Structures are given as structure tokens and as C-alpha cells.
DNA sequence: TCGATCCCGTA
DNA sequence: GTACGGGATCGAG
């Protein structure tokens, strides 16, 4: 190591320990004390000290801690950090251990009464800079980011997420450089430290304002001219709070250094005290690392890094010149391209529709790519046929598709596409069955699910840092939008050919990862084969009784009108009932009702729970509004909207299923969403009766009973649950008996709530809210549940451990869902990710199973001589079919069989899957 | 015309 | 507490 510039590492010990406590799994030392956080802390110090001889590693190091509970900021503002919950019980005894651990490393530990760690860090940073040293602050606290210097002389290291935080990071995250960060933080406030900020201003607005005006004072000065009324008022009314907040977030250095800089030199660490500490704690793995290494755990030997998969990797820079794309308007040229595609054995294709959603309205053209940058557009339906003008030179639809058909159907030529479902649907209408195919959207979904969206332009941006020509640049937007087929051919070529080009390049990049990252099974055996199946469901659509819906609409409307009158009478005048803002004002300001709860936008909450609370207090208008909401919701969202969605050509409703939208692997349904048709309320359930079978057919509904609980029983290996399912017992009753020793209505209801809470990633707070009990009672109930069903507890901890280590969860079939926030330093994000990570394997396995059933269904029906039976809808655990009358029993047998055995042979479940089947003239009676 | 927010329907 | 999509309102452009 040369005598280069000294480099001081300042470790923000207090904040580290809190974060470590929340994110690391609990760990018990040999005295039965939880030491997870201290262990994490020790491992971190180890790693840092290990950098002594490394480039950019520390030459000097100190740990800075908070001391005492109040600082000069409390004198400034007595509410500062007032709402901080006390440290969790099992963290408290760990706090003094930090000092012990730090001493064991012979690293100085600095704390000062009345000063927060942040201020001490600011002081040392200033002193070290003055001495010409480099400083790295080991923390992820945003307040400390104010200290970062543009020239790199001060940066931060977030060891939790293993990343350097520098000026660019701050600019990216907050929109301003570190020098202006304090102003942004002052505006946005901090609910954890109870820094007030300005109401209604969050990170986004704060950053925008400071960027615009340069400083907090400038923002406050300009406040009267700000256009947005709410923002203006808040800025003026809370200017003092903003200034106070500015002082609260300011880091101050008003102390003499308790230890001189030179005293912080990092030495080789003496072995004895460290060994003693590790032995005391019983941390064998760290002890073993010391063996033969001397005390300093360096000498090049690092513990093996956790196994991480490749991931999307760094973006690959590409150069794209859209002007080189070809437009093909004659048969000879197209023939040459087709020949070259044949020679390559693969071709990327993209179809351009004519308007409306997806490709429903017909074909404007086809683009092809036969290599990176080698792409062309074949217009087929541009311009409107016109007796006087010929329109643009192009191959006609018939001729063009005639030439392309042999290529598209050639089994020896691989067709690459993005979201091929919609394109294959359209070609199928022309009688062209494309095979074989690969879909980059689905490949990306299988590889990078949960990481980001899988739209083509987003994938291109992520993988190539390239911006695709947006469709609106070609077709415009809104009312003035034109059909793709009416766009100028030159622009259409740039857009369409680029898409095919990008598909080609993406497949090159994704293909090899499928096998390497074990995503092949989900991609090839589940999602890809589902494409034509779902395409057929969309094409077939479901018949809807328009007259019946219209009648319901009428009834609902009349009912709504009378409710409206009564609401206005009770409210003392008309207002927009549908506006939560106005409703809140009427209830709490005009009528003066008590107990209004305001959300962060400053409006009163008027959601169902609040209105029900008012209703219980005898407020009649609350009941009326609830009824009004139910009726308007049903009318607007269902009876009216559904009528509008009936395709005039088929008289049926053709929903569209998104295959790569839901993180867990579920399908989603849009335009209209047929996966949220009402059923729970009596009134809502009437809407299901509008879904009817074609003349001579019945609607048949088959749904899995409690599939997610069954999967939880299997995955978490809970003997009692598995046994109950095997015997066909009522699962919630069984749970109630286990938990409470009785299965009265009340107990069973509670048990049911807990069972669901488990699936959703339980928290004592959430359960308490749901059951209307205290948090402690909720906690006790969860503890009891874990005690009775230890498998569930193990499942949760091992799942989280795995996700933290690898970054993703997996279903029984190997579908991965990534959780980028699982190690976030922002608690709410992290906890959200944890709940989702607990739920994803269960919800995702259920999605895999029903998808496998769907893939097998058409063949199974055909084999049974039921090719007239059609699968129409999927609602997560339910499939809806149209079956010829008189064949219902037989179809039910086949369907039940396919669904119940859909996990096999890949996965053998310890619990049976039950399938309930019903049928009738409409969905309401079938379900 | 667009995005954010609130509210609410399903599994 | 999980996973979605969509309607209305509101405020901005």
C-alpha cells in the first residue's frame, strides 16, 4: 500500500443496527438471546476492515453512535422524533453489544451526549476534508447524503445493498445535487423523525420545486405565484414549518473532535479480543474464517459470495439507424428476404394492426428482421382503396400473405416475436398457423418477472439503452390519432421495422439465459404453449345478454336517482356524491360529524370502513351513500360498460388476457376485465346472469376449491392441514379447533381470516386491523398459529431467507418472481416486498397449475369427442366453458380430471385438488 | 388529454 | 396484509 491519500471510513453504527435488525433473520446466541443485528454488524465490520489493503479501502475508520435520546433538535422542536416507536424488545439488549463488537475489532467508537451520530459524522467529514483526506460514510441515511461532494472526496457506501452512493446517485434519486438536498428534505419532511415538512409535498414535488427555484427560500418567496392552488396555500401556510424542517435536517458541526483524526488509523486487528468475542457469541463461521488467516480476515481469502444468477446484465450499447430499414413493395424483393430468412432458419416478425385495440381491426403490414439492423416493412393495407387514386405502392393483403405463408408455416424456420398471441390470432383468421415460435415477451417474463415490465419498448430501453420510435410519433394521439394503415409509409417503416429488429436482438440476448437460469420449464411448458389457447379464448368471447343488462341498468339508475334525492335532503343541498372530496366536506364540515380521518392529500377519507363507522353511529346519510356507491359502481363499471363492450360482429364480449402482467404469473384481463365480475353481493351477483350460453349450449363453470390454502399446506408441509384436506374436512373449522379449541361461528370466522392472512404475508398490525383487535392480541394469535403450525413459520423464514439471498422467489414449477426491494433500506418498501414474497410462491403455483390445465384442456376435450366445447374464461381459480347441451356431464368429467391432475407429473402434491363443477343457462347459475 | 388519487369489484 | 383493472373526479396542460 502506497502512502497515497488517507481514506477515512465513518460507520453510522446506530442506523445500521436498526436496519440490520429489520432485514436479517433472527439469530440466537448460546445464551438464547437474539443477536441477529449484531451478527450482521460484525460481519459488516469484518468486510470493511478487510478492505485495508485494497484500493479505495479504509486507512482510517471509526464507528459513530447516537448517545442519549435527545439532542439540540429537541430544543428546537419538541416533537422531533417524538413518534418513534421504542426499539423492539429483542433489539434493545443488542444495542450495547455494538460497542463490545466494535471494541473487539479495536476500532474507535465515538459518541457524544446531546449529539446525533449524523452531526458527529458531519464534523469528522469536514475535518478530514480539510486535511485533504477522502471520506466514505457507511450508511444509507438520506440526511447524510447532504455531505457528499461533487469531486468524489466524500461519498457513501450502502453495505446493505452493496453500492456506492455518490453525487450522481443523489441527483438520480432526488433530482438535485447534495448541496440542495437539505432543501428538498425540508420540504418533503420525514414521518419517521417527525420532521414536519409541508403537507401535500412528497419527494417528487419537493424535488421539482427546488429544481425550479434553486432553494427553499426561493420556493417560499415564489409561493404566491405558484399556480396549483393547493400547493400554493400549503406553502404559504406552512412556510414556518418548512424553515423549521430545514434546520432540523441541517447537519451541524459544533464540537471539538473527541478523537483526533490520526487516532482513527486502521491497524491490523489484534487477534485475541476478536477471538474472545466471537467465541462468546458462538459464531463459528466467523471464527473459522480467522483460522490460519491471522486476525485480519484479508489475505485475499474472501468467503464465497452468495450464488447469484446472471440477471439481465449490463445493457448492451447498440447503434440503430432507422433510415437503413427497407420498405418492401414488390414480390421479387419480398422473395429475396424470405429466401434469406429461410437460409438463416429464423426470422423476427411483427404485425401492425389497423386500429382499435391490438390487431382486432385487420392488418396494415408486416415487418421482418433477419439480423441485427437488417429489417424491413411490408405494407399490405395502407391507404384507403380509392377509385381515382391508386394509393401507395404495396403488395395487397392477399398477395403479401400468400408469399409469407410458406415461411410462417415452415417448421424449419423459427419465428421470433413479441407478444405473439395477438399476432397469431390475426394470422389464424387468415388461416395461417405460425410455427414454430419464440416470444421475447414471455422469455423476459420467465427470466426477469418482477424486475420490470415486459413491453417491447421497455425491454429495448433496459437491454440496449435505446429508445424505440413511439407509436404516437407515427399515428398521433387522442382524437387526432390515425390508423396505422393511414400513416405515411416511410414513418410506418421506421416504426415497424425497428420493432422486428429489436425482437431479433432481444432474442439473441435472452435465448441463452433461458437454460442457464432454469427458466426453460416455465417458458416452454407453461407460458409459450398457452399462447394459442388463450388466443382462442379471446377470439371466441362470451355471449352477453344485452337486453338484460339494459334492464338492470335502468333499475339501478332509477334506484340511484331516488337515493340521490334522499342524500341531498339529508345533506342540506346537492353536491357530487361521487366526489370523495366533496362528500368528505359535506359529512365533516357541513354536517359537522365527528371523527373524520384525513389522508395525506388532506382530504377526509370516505371509504367503506369510514362510512360504516358513521352508519353504526346512526348517521343515515352514510348508509345512503354506501347504497348509492354500490349501485353506481354496478351500473357504471358493469351494466353500462359491459354493453358497450359487446362486439357488434359477434354479439359477444372478447376480453383480452395479458400473459406477462401479473408478477406472480397470473393472467390479467382487460377491455373489459372479466375477472372482477361481481358475485359477493346479492345485487352484484345478478350481473353474472348476463353471461349466457349460445343457443343449444350451456355455460359450465369449474373452479378449484381453496387451492391456495391447499398449496400452502403442501408447500409449508403442515400435517394437520394436509390431513384435513385429505379427509375433505372444513379447513377453517379445523383451524378454529386447533387455535381456539372450539369451532363456533365466531371462532371459525377468525380462523378463516387468519388462514387468509397467512397467504398474504401476515403482520400483527394487519391482522389486528382486520379482526378489530389490539396489535398485541393479533401478535398473540399469530404466535399461537405458528405454534400449532410450525411448518408455516418455517416456510415464511426460509422463503424470506432465500429471497434475500437470491433476489427472487420460486413456485413449485420454478417460476421466479424477483423482489428488488427485499433489501431496501426503506422499511415500508422492504416489508411490502416481504409480504409479496411470502404470497408469490403460493399464488404463483396456483397460477401455474391452472395454466397447465388450460394448455391440456383443448386436447383433452377433443380426445373425448367434445371439440364443440369451448373454454371461454379464466378467473384465476375458475374456468368457464360453453358446452353443447346434453354433453355437460361428460364435459364435466373431462374438465374435472384435467384440472385436478394439472400439477402432475412435474409436481406431486400431498393434498388433493378439489374441483367443483356446475352448469346452466348463465354464469350465475353455473357457478 | 393526461396523470394522480380515491374507491371498489374479483381471486 | 397478496394479486389485479377500471371508473369518476380533480387539477393540470
TrEMBL record:
<keyword id="KW-0540">Nuclease</keyword>
<dbReference type="InterPro" id="IPR012337">
    <property type="entry name" value="RNaseH-like_sf"/>
</dbReference>
<keyword id="KW-0227">DNA damage</keyword>
<dbReference type="InterPro" id="IPR001098">
    <property type="entry name" value="DNA-dir_DNA_pol_A_palm_dom"/>
</dbReference>
<feature type="domain" description="DNA-directed DNA polymerase family A palm">
    <location>
        <begin position="684"/>
        <end position="887"/>
    </location>
</feature>
<comment type="similarity">
    <text>Belongs to the DNA polymerase type-A family.</text>
</comment>
<keyword id="KW-0234">DNA repair</keyword>
<dbReference type="InterPro" id="IPR036397">
    <property type="entry name" value="RNaseH_sf"/>
</dbReference>
<keyword id="KW-0378">Hydrolase</keyword>
<keyword id="KW-0239">DNA-directed DNA polymerase</keyword>
<keyword id="KW-0235">DNA replication</keyword>
<dbReference type="InterPro" id="IPR020046">
    <property type="entry name" value="5-3_exonucl_a-hlix_arch_N"/>
</dbReference>
<dbReference type="InterPro" id="IPR002298">
    <property type="entry name" value="DNA_polymerase_A"/>
</dbReference>
<keyword id="KW-0238">DNA-binding</keyword>
<keyword id="KW-0269">Exonuclease</keyword>
<dbReference type="Pfam" id="PF01612">
    <property type="entry name" value="DNA_pol_A_exo1"/>
</dbReference>
<feature type="domain" description="5'-3' exonuclease">
    <location>
        <begin position="4"/>
        <end position="267"/>
    </location>
</feature>
<dbReference type="InterPro" id="IPR002562">
    <property type="entry name" value="3'-5'_exonuclease_dom"/>
</dbReference>
<dbReference type="InterPro" id="IPR043502">
    <property type="entry name" value="DNA/RNA_pol_sf"/>
</dbReference>
<keyword id="KW-0808">Transferase</keyword>
<comment type="function">
    <text>In addition to polymerase activity, this DNA polymerase exhibits 3'-5' and 5'-3' exonuclease activity.</text>
</comment>
<comment type="subunit">
    <text>Single-chain monomer with multiple functions.</text>
</comment>
<dbReference type="InterPro" id="IPR036279">
    <property type="entry name" value="5-3_exonuclease_C_sf"/>
</dbReference>
<dbReference type="InterPro" id="IPR029060">
    <property type="entry name" value="PIN-like_dom_sf"/>
</dbReference>
<dbReference type="InterPro" id="IPR019760">
    <property type="entry name" value="DNA-dir_DNA_pol_A_CS"/>
</dbReference>
<dbReference type="Pfam" id="PF01367">
    <property type="entry name" value="5_3_exonuc"/>
</dbReference>
<protein>
    <recommendedName>
        <fullName>DNA polymerase I</fullName>
        <ecNumber>2.7.7.7</ecNumber>
    </recommendedName>
</protein>
<dbReference type="Pfam" id="PF02739">
    <property type="entry name" value="5_3_exonuc_N"/>
</dbReference>
<feature type="region of interest" description="Disordered">
    <location>
        <begin position="293"/>
        <end position="315"/>
    </location>
</feature>
<dbReference type="InterPro" id="IPR018320">
    <property type="entry name" value="DNA_polymerase_1"/>
</dbReference>
<feature type="domain" description="3'-5' exonuclease">
    <location>
        <begin position="325"/>
        <end position="515"/>
    </location>
</feature>
<keyword id="KW-0548">Nucleotidyltransferase</keyword>
<dbReference type="Pfam" id="PF00476">
    <property type="entry name" value="DNA_pol_A"/>
</dbReference>
<dbReference type="InterPro" id="IPR002421">
    <property type="entry name" value="5-3_exonuclease"/>
</dbReference>
<dbReference type="InterPro" id="IPR020045">
    <property type="entry name" value="DNA_polI_H3TH"/>
</dbReference>
<dbReference type="InterPro" id="IPR008918">
    <property type="entry name" value="HhH2"/>
</dbReference>
Amino acid at each position: 500500500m502506497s502512502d497515497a491519500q488517507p481514506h477515512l471510513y465513518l460507520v453510522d453504527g446506530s442506523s445500521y443496527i436498526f436496519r440490520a435488525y429489520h432485514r436479517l433473520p433472527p439469530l440466537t446466541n448460546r445464551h438464547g438471546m437474539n443477536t441477529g443485528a449484531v451478527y450482521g454488524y460484525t460481519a459488516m465490520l469484518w468486510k470493511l476492515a478487510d478492505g485495508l489493503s485494497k484500493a479505495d479501502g479504509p486507512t482510517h475508520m471509526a464507528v459513530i453512535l447516537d448517545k442519549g435520546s435527545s439532542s439540540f433538535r429537541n430544543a428546537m422542536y419538541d416533537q422531533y422524533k417524538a413518534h418513534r416507536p421504542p426499539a423492539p424488545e429483542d433489539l434493545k439488549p443488542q444495542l450495547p453489544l455494538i460497542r463490545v463488537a466494535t471494541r473487539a475489532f479495536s476500532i474507535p467508537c465515538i459518541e457524544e451526549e446531546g449529539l446525533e451520530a449524523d452531526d458527529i459524522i458531519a464534523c469528522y467529514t469536514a475535518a478530514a476534508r480539510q486535511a485533504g483526506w477522502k471520506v466514505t460514510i457507511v450508511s444509507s441515511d438520506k440526511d447524510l447524503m447532504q455531505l457528499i461532494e461533487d469531486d468524489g472526496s466524500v461519498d457513501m457506501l450502502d453495505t446493505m445493498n452493496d453500492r456506492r452512493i455518490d453525487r450522481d446517485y443523489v441527483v438520480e434519486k432526488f433530482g438535485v445535487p447534495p448541496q440542495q438536498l437539505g432543501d428538498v428534505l425540508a420540504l418533503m419532511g420525514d414521518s419517521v423523525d417527525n420532521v414536519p415538512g409541508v403537507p401535500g409535498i412528497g419527494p417528487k414535488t419537493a424535488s421539482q420545486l427546488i429544481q425550479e427555484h434553486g432553494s427553499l427560500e426561493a420556493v417560499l418567496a415564489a409561493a404566491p405565484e405558484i399556480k396549483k392552488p393547493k400547493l400554493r396555500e400549503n406553502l404559504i401556510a406552512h412556510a414556518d414549518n418548512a424553515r423549521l424542517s430545514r434546520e432540523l435536517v441541517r447537519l451541524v458541526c459544533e464540537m471539538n473532535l473527541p478523537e483526533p483524526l490520526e487516532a482513527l488509523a486502521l491497524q491490523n486487528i489484534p487477534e485475541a479480543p476478536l477471538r474472545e468475542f466471537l467465541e462468546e457469541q458462538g459464531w463459528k463461521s466467523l471464527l473459522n474464517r480467522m483460522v490460519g488467516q491471522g486476525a485480519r480476515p484479508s489475505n485475499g481469502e474472501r468467503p464465497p459470495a452468495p450464488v447469484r444468477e446472471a440477471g439481465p446484465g449490463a445493457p448492451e450499447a447498440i447503434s440503430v439507424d432507422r433510415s437503413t430499414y427497407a420498405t418492401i413493395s414488390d414480390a421479387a424483393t419480398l422473395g429475396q428476404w424470405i429466401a434469406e430468412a429461410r437460409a438463416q432458419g429464423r426470422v423476427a416478425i411483427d404485425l401492425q394492426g389497423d386500429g382499435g385495440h391490438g390487431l382486432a381491426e385487420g392488418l396494415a403490414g408486416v415487418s421482418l428482421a433477419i439480423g441485427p439492423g437488417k429489417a424491413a416493412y411490408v405494407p399490405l393495407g395502407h391507404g384507403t382503396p380509392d377509385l381515382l387514386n391508386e394509393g401507395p405502392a404495396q403488395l395487397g393483403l392477399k398477395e403479401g400473405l400468400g408469399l409469407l405463408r410458406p415461411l410462417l408455416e415452415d417448421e424449419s424456420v423459427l419465428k421470433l416475436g413479441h407478444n405473439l398471441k395477438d399476432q397469431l390470432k390475426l394470422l389464424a383468421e387468415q388461416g395461417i398457423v405460425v410455427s414454430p415460435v419464440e416470444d421475447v415477451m414471455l422469455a423476459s417474463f420467465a427470466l426477469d418477472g418482477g424486475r420490470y415490465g415486459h413491453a417491447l419498448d421497455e425491454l429495448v430501453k433496459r437491454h440496449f439503452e435505446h429508445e424505440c420510435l413511439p407509436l404516437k410519433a407515427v399515428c398521433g394521439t387522442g382524437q387526432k390519432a390515425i390508423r396505422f394503415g393511414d400513416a405515411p409509409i416511410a414513418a410506418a417503416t421506421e416504426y415497424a421495422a425497428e420493432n422486428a429488429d429489436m425482437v431479433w436482438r432481444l432474442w439473441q440476448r435472452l435465448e441463452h439465459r433461458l437454460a442457464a437460469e432454469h427458466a426453460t420449464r416455465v417458458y416452454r411448458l407453461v407460458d409459450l404453449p398457452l399462447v394459442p389457447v388463450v388466443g382462442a379464448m379471446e377470439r371466441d368471447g362470451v355471449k352477453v345478454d344485452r337486453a338484460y343488462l339494459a334492464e338492470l341498468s335502468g333499475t339501478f339508475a332509477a334506484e340511484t336517482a331516488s337515493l340521490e334525492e334522499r342524500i341531498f335532503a339529508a345533506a342540506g343541498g346537492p353536491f357530487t356524491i361521487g366526489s370523495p372530496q366533496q362528500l368528505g366536506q359535506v359529512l365533516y364540515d357541513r354536517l359537522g360529524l365527528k371523527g373524520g380521518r384525513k389522508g395525506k392529500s388532506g382530504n377526509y377519507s370516505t371509504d367503506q370502513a369510514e362510512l360504516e363507522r358513521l352508519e353504526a353511529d346512526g348517521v343515515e346519510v352514510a348508509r345512503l351513500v354506501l347504497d348509492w356507491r354500490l349501485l353506481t359502481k354496478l351500473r357504471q363499471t358493469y351494466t353500462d360498460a359491459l354493453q358497450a363492450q359487446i362486439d357488434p360482429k359477434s354479439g359477444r364480449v372478447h376480453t383480452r388476457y395479458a400473459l406477462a402482467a401479473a408478477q406472480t404469473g397470473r393472467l390479467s384481463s382487460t377491455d373489459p376485465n372479466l375477472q372482477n365480475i361481481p358475485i359477493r353481493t346479492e345485487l352484484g351477483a345478478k350481473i353474472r346472469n348476463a353471461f349466457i350460453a349460445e343457443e343449444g349450449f350451456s355455460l359450465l363453470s369449474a373452479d378449484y376449491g381453496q387451492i391456495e390454502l391447499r398449496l400452502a399446506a403442501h408447500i409449508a408441509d403442515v400435517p394437520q392441514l394436509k390431513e384435513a384436506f385429505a379427509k375433505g374436512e372444513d379447513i377453517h373449522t379445523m383451524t378454529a379447533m386447533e387455535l381456539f379449541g372450539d369451532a363456533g361461528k365466531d371462532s371459525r370466522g377468525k380462523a378463516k381470516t387468519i388462514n387468509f392472512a397467512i397467504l398474504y404475508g401476515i403482520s400483527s398490525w394487519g391482522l389486528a386491523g382486520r379482526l378489530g383487535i389490539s396489535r398485541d392480541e393479533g401478535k398473540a394469535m399469530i404466535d399461537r398459529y405458528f405454534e400449532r403450525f410450525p411448518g408455516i413459520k418455517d416456510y415464511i423464514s426460509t422463503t424470506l431467507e432465500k429471497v434475500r439471498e437470491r433476489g427472487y422467489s420460486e413456485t413449485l414449477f420454478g417460476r421466479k418472481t424477483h423482489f428488488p426491494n427485499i433489501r431496501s433500506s426503506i422499511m415500508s418498501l422492504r416489508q411490502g416486498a416481504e409480504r409479496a414474497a411470502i404470497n408469490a410462491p403460493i399464488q404463483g403455483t396456483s397460477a401455474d397449475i391452472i395454466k397447465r390445465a388450460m394448455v391440456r384442456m383443448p386436447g383433452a376435450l377433443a380426445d373425448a369427442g367434445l371439440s364443440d366445447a369451448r373454454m371461454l374464461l379464466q378467473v384465476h381459480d375458475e374456468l368457464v366453458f360453453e358446452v353443447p347441451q346434453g354433453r355437460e356431464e361428460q364435459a364435466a368429467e373431462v374438465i374435472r380430471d384435467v384440472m385436478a391432475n394439472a400439477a402432475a407429473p412435474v409436481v406431486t402434491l400431498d393434498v388433493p385438488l378439489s374441483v367443483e363443477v356446475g352448469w346452466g343457462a348463465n354464469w350465475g347459475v353455473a357457478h
